[in-house]
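Feature request, filed as a ticket because there's no other form

It would be nice if the structure record came with a short human-readable summary line next to the tokens. Right now we just get the raw output. Example of a typical job, pasted below so the devs can see what we mean:
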Amino acid sequence: MAFKRLVSGFVVLSMGLASCTSTPQWTKAQEKNFLSSCLRQANWVSRDKCVPLSNEIRALVLLGAPQKCLLAAASEIVIAPDKETEDAARATLELCLES
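Raw output as currently delivered:
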């Protein structure tokens, strides 16, 4: 039992260290989850908005922007009722690089 806990702790520690030292990434699973959520928020009508937005997020993640910031801004873009609100949310998305 102690060995099992030791191995389990090592695995958790290794994963934690790997996530701190690895390069940022936007996995296929994250992309799939984002697209599904995006389409739900947009009432399944904005695939033309969700797919390019996912590509923007991937590019910004690779540049080091925090995913939490990006996803919050992306959500605002998707639900924006007008162009002005969407533009403000897009500006927030770009500011995530400075976070």
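Something like this underneath would help us a lot:
The mean pLDDT is 79.
Helices lie at 2-21, 28-41, 47-62, 67-79, 83-95.
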